[in-house]
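Example record

The entry below shows one chain as it appears in the dataset: sequence first, then structure tokens.
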Amino acid sequence: QVQLVESGGGLVQAGGSLRLSCLASGSTSSIDAMGWGRQAPGKQREVVASVSSGGSITYTDSVKGRFTISRDNAKNTVYLQMNSLKPEDTAVYYCNVAGRRYGVRYSVWGQGTQVTVSS
């Protein structure tokens, strides 16, 4: 099993920045991809950014050029640097890891951290 603990959310004005962190523990050697998703009130959860074990990175279009995802494998941590934040970025942000353990694929979500961007 993999456990996730997110930190770094909060309240920020539009145009500001926040950095989210997610520490993974447990069976971390089985982790392949790490990433972040978000869910705004009344909307479905969407994947914001992800980074594979090989370093391949993807972003959803709405955050390209503003958000940067990175991972530190030695620390089992994934980060999301969010710049030029907009009110529409307001959501609960969830860390996600995916991997394979005993031949079975898995995907785990964290508890979430609130990000609120005021206009």
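Notes for this example: The chain has a mean pLDDT of 96. The first strand starts at residue 2 and ends at 7.
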